[in-house]
User: Which sequence fits this backbone?
């Protein structure tokens, strides 16, 4: 039966992880994966999460099946977070939100639904983008192409190229946009540039699919969410995937969501019914624990305040590390201006280093980033930063 099965290529990032684990260099630093670590290099377990879990343990509940679209209190909390509790779209009932298995699950449910809705559509993702965007939409049956985004020569965004590519897209094309904290580059477009993107999406009848995997990691929860409000104000029907993997440090619980903004309540209920078909025929219904934890935190004012504080601390620490990296590289003798690192936002930095330099960083210094030059600045800390700066200085010299 399996004699003709070919070996699938290894996931490049997970492969990097294995290489890191096997590395015996005592100074090794893993900047490969997109995970936030605290200043002690540890994966945080947020206090708000622990408090919610403790309350759940004190009052254990049986684990029946959840509704297909997940915990109602969770879906409502997601709507409030993404669109604003008092926003017209939410109060009028025209948002269909379903709990999903991580942000990846939200993207996948949206992709499968879109394929049924508009099988001929193409999908555009940013060049470059999170690796899985292409794979998820291709596996849903779409042809996936990219729009220009990163301008390597200028270490910036090729915004004119992006707009030209969106303008050239056929009506109905699904455009996957990073709502904030672009992965992998760390470069986000400005508010004025978002307005321009929205103008084109509207004029060309494109379908915006906003991937919000880092709400709160950029400038703040409301600040990062503001882009969603812009699309709503433009009267667009949009898709938004949400991930709490990073913002709650709940990677393994797989907590995410998909929200679809319809034109009215009746349309939203039809959309919701179709999202449920996608889920039902895929994994039936979502798991209980992670969603219950996030709902408990978001719906309790005290825990919510604690979450905002802890999320804020993660955000600030990343920014501090960016500054320390710029300063440290300069102190280590790097001549070129590396200040672009502090204009980037979120967990990642496209360092501008070549594949050869990244390979040298790994093999000679035990500093692991991807071959594209992406480094996870959220894994830097006061203990490893010096070694990282000294190592980079050596490979760029
Ligand atoms: N979108 C982007 C841009 C991401 O970076 C990630 C996580 N690396 C995801 C989606 C998926 O999130 P999750 O782990 O919650 O599935």
Assistant:
């Amino acid at each position: 039966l399996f004699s003709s099965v070919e070996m699938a290529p290894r996931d490049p990032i997970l492969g990097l992880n294995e290489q890191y684990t096997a590395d015996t260099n005592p100074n090794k630093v893993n900047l490969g994966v997109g995970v936030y670590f605290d200043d002690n290099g540890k994966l945080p377990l947020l206090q708000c999460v622990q408090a919610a879990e403790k309350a759940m343990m004190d009052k254990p509940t049986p684990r029946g099946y959840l509704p297909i679209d997940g915990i109602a209190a969770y879906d409502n909390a997601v709507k409030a977070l993404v669109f604003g509790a008092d926003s017209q779209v939410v109060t009028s009932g025209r948002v269909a939100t379903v709990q999903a298995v991580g942000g990846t699950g939200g993207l996948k449910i949206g992709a499968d639904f879109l394929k049924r809705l508009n099988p001929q559509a193409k999908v555009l993702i940013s060049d470059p983008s999170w690796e899985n965007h292409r794979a998820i939409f291709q596996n849903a049956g779409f042809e996936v192409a990219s729009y220009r985004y990163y301008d390597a020569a200028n270490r910036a965004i090729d915004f004119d190229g992006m707009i030209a590519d969106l303008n050239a897209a056929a009506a109905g094309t699904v455009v996957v946009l990073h709502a904030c904290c672009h992965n992998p580059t760390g470069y986000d477009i400005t508010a004025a540039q978002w307005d321009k993107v929205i103008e084109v999406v509207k004029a060309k009848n494109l379908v915006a699919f906003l991937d919000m995997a880092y709400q709160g990691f950029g400038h703040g929860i409301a600040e990062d969410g503001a882009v969603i409000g812009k699309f709503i104000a433009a009267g667009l029907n949009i898709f938004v995937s949400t991930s709490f993997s990073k913002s709650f440090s709940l990677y393994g619980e797989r907590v995410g969501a998909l929200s679809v903004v319809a034109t009215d309540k009746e349309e939203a209920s039809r959309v919701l019914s179709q999202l449920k078909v996608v889920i039902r025929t895929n994994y039936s219904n979502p798991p209980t624990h992670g969603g219950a934890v996030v709902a408990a935190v978001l719906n309790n004012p005290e825990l919510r305040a604690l979450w905002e504080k802890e999320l804020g601390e993660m955000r600030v620490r990343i920014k501090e590390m960016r500054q320390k990296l710029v300063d440290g590289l300069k102190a280590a003798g790097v001549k070129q201006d590396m200040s672009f690192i502090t204009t980037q936002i979120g967990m990642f930095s496209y360092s501008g280093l070549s594949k050869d330099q990244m390979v040298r960083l790994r093999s000679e210094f035990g500093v692991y980033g991807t071959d594209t030059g992406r480094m996870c600045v959220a894994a830097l800390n006061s203990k490893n930063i010096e070694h990282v700066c000294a190592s980079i200085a050596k490979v760029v010299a």
Notes: The mean pLDDT is 97. DSSP finds 15 helices and 13 strands in the chain.
